[in-house]
Amino acid sequence: MNARQQSILQWVNERRRISVSELARASGVSEVTIRQDLNLLEKRSYLKRIHGAAVALESDDVDARMMSNFTLKQQLARYAASLVNDGDTIFIESGSANALLARYLAERRQITLITVSHYIAHLLKESDCEVIVLGGMYQKQSETVVGPLTRLCIQQVHFSKAFIGIDGYHADTGFTGRDMMRADVVNAVLAKGVENIVLTDASKFGQIQPNPLATPQQISRVITDTRLPPDYQQLLQRQGLQLDMVGE
């Protein structure tokens, strides 16, 4: 995705609906070029095209969440991808930042991706990398699988790194998640004892969600952005976590 396409996404997300002609004037390129950009962005599930315009995705699913802090999540995902070596087999949980991470990694053929996210699997359908999708009960809105069968599948596969998302982190509760069944899947992954990496923007810190996700001892590294308050920086480091902050 080039800088112009990234700007288009931001304009669409802010305006919710914007015409092709407006995008052409704002970008300084022809309407033909804008239509080509929109075709590409729609194919990659970033926005929706209608006659003469583009509209933001309105749902509460991964598509919609990806549009929040999109540029920042791109930076986080790009950095996370740099930690993966050719030949690695890695687990990627669901969530918008993890979906962007999967896209970066899919450009490398010598990587095997294991995921519970059908959304991520769909994004990678034309990629060259190996994709393993685990089974389980399908949650339609999050497009991920959960439940006892998913836990069993996790126990039967091997990977060297796991990237997970969180919905909250607080000094009193540690890492937490909104959905009980997704939290159960994450905890099954963490229990395998590999290099577990939290990938999240700093907005999740200070929030408390109902379901505990991990003890600090189960997390190897946290990748977040430079908006993380100093008190949380110090807390994570005191707990022995590798903290990587990405951004300007």
UniProtKB/TrEMBL annotation:
Pfam families: DeoRC, HTH_DeoR. SMART domains: DeoRC, HTH_DEOR. Keywords: DNA-binding, Transcription, Transcription regulation. One of its GO terms (molecular function) is DNA-binding transcription factor activity. Residues 1-56 form the HTH deoR-type domain. Gene3D superfamilies: 3.40.50.1360, Winged helix-like DNA-binding domain superfamily/Winged helix DNA-binding domain. The keyword Transcription applies. InterPro entries: Carb_Metab_HTH_regulators (IPR050313), DeoR-like_C (IPR014036), DeoR_HTH (IPR001034), NagB/RpiA_transferase-like (IPR037171), Tscrpt_reg_HTH_DeoR_CS (IPR018356), WH-like_DNA-bd_sf (IPR036388), WH_DNA-bd_sf (IPR036390). SUPFAM superfamilies: NagB/RpiA/CoA transferase-like, Winged helix' DNA-binding domain. The keyword Transcription applies. NCBIfam families: trans_reg_YciT (NF040887). PANTHER family: DEOR FAMILY REGULATORY PROTEIN, HTH-TYPE TRANSCRIPTIONAL REGULATOR SRLR-RELATED. This is DeoR/GlpR transcriptional regulator.
